[in-house]
Design a protein that fits this description.
Two copies of one chain form a homodimer.
Chain A lengths: L1 E6 L4 E7 L5 E5 L6 H11 L2 E6 L11 H8 L2 E5 L9 E3 L4 E4 L2 E7 L8 E5 L2 E5 L2 E2 L2 E2 L9 H12 L7 E4 L9 E2 H7 L9 H10 L8 H9 L6
Parallel strand pairs in A: 3-4, 4-5, 5-6, 10-13
Antiparallel strand pairs in A: 1-2, 2-3, 7-8, 8-9, 9-10, 11-12, 13-14
Helix pairs in contact in A: 3-5
Chain lengths: ~230, ~230
């Protein structure tokens, strides 16, 4: 079972993955404002939420991890380096989390933030804000680093089979997913054989505004979404 | 699939739990010197080792976690507070790790050390050095605390059904396992309605020698068994 949700204010994608056999499920990057929608979906499909899995500590929306933990007893998963010691399960590169017949591999893909991960499950990769469709996450805050992002994407995502489906953390143009082959060849920032040097220069020249929600979202997400 | 191993030098018990359906397996508290034995058992049963799970950072033997990680690609699991940042997966109270049909619940049971956990799987609880058969772990090093150990055992282990089998981290008298009911009623340090106050007094009066291997084992285990 697989479902993609969209939260329009921050253009965030959230993903529900469920094991058809055991009815155990996980949510990748749930948004606090959408928790009722996720719960309704879980109820209608008879699934039990085991983990909420963050691709990173977000700067643009508040995670639903803590609300879901309180309401459903799910446990929050985040990379050890993300600075979210509120989490129940701290993961690192190469760890597999098993949920019924689902096998979810953690790949550490820092660069947008230092604690970014991508989750590989079957023929899908959930890239968070590391690799976006025809783009990538910004690298100018939260210990972002353009060279590191280039290495992460080349070593941990572009090495997956070309037909692996890429499900990003956001899309601002209505696109739902892409493939590794498509992005490896045609991503305007990382494809077309662009060198690491060129990528670093390109990222340093982006003139990006200060993220509107970061001062609320960051401390909240470091506490798994608990608003103080 | 379930097998109990014994390492005689430190009288340590190690446990292999395998899912008969998926042939995925975990080892609880593997000892470095015994790694070949575990691998032979895994091979003969056709099992793939997913996790090595520490009940705590041991002072009396060196864990096989790192050797097994190197040889089999297994990932090491330890409590977040254990001070073993070498681990791949840092867990906290209430987290469930799922391995095929096995559902392993983490219960934080500090007191022997601050990062001690017990693992509950079906009708078994693996208590490490928190609760031993007719005894308990010492509380005089590694941030041990007798009051905390009393609370851990009463709140997290004695609340399990009486027929839950107790598998400890050690036994020095050849006993293989016990039950929650047996220990709750008859454990000479914790059973028979002994009060928290009495237990703290009893633990403070033990005159225990300095653990022979602690100066080697502790730093090695904080590095998941890597000997420098």
């Amino acid at each position: 079972m697989f479902k993609q949700f969209f939260e329009p204010e921050s253009s965030t994608y959230t993903y529900l993955l469920g094991c058809d056999k055991t009815r155990l499920a996980v949510l990748i990057d749930p948004v606090a404002s959408e928790v009722d929608t996720y719960i309704a979906e879980l109820e209608s499909t008879g699934c039990k939420l085991v983990y909420t899995m963050e691709t990173h500590v977000h700067a643009d929306h508040v995670t639903g991890a803590d609300l879901l933990r309180q309401r459903l007893g799910s446990k929050s998963v985040v990379h050890r380096d993300a600075g979210a010691m509120c989490a129940d399960l701290l993961v690192t590169d190469g760890v597999h989390l098993i949920v019924g017949t689902l096998d979810i591999e953690v790949r550490h893909t820092p660069g947008h933030t230092n604690g970014c991960v991508s989750y590989v499950c079957g023929d899908k990769v959930f890239t968070g804000d590391a690799l976006l469709i025809d783009g990538c996450g910004r690298t100018d805050f939260q210990m972002g680093n353009a060279g590191q992002l280039y290495d992460s994407i080349h070593q941990k995502i572009f090495t997956l089979p070309d037909d692996t489906k890429v499900y990003p953390g956001h899309d601002y143009h209505g696109r739902l997913h892409s493939t590794v082959g498509q992005e490896r060849l045609h991503n305007q920032r990382l494809g077309r054989g662009r060198s690491r040097e060129d990528f670093i220069a390109l990222m340093s020249e982006l003139k990006l505004s200060y993220p509107g929600k970061i001062d609320i979202a960051l401390p909240a997400n470091q506490a798994c979404g608990r608003l103080s």
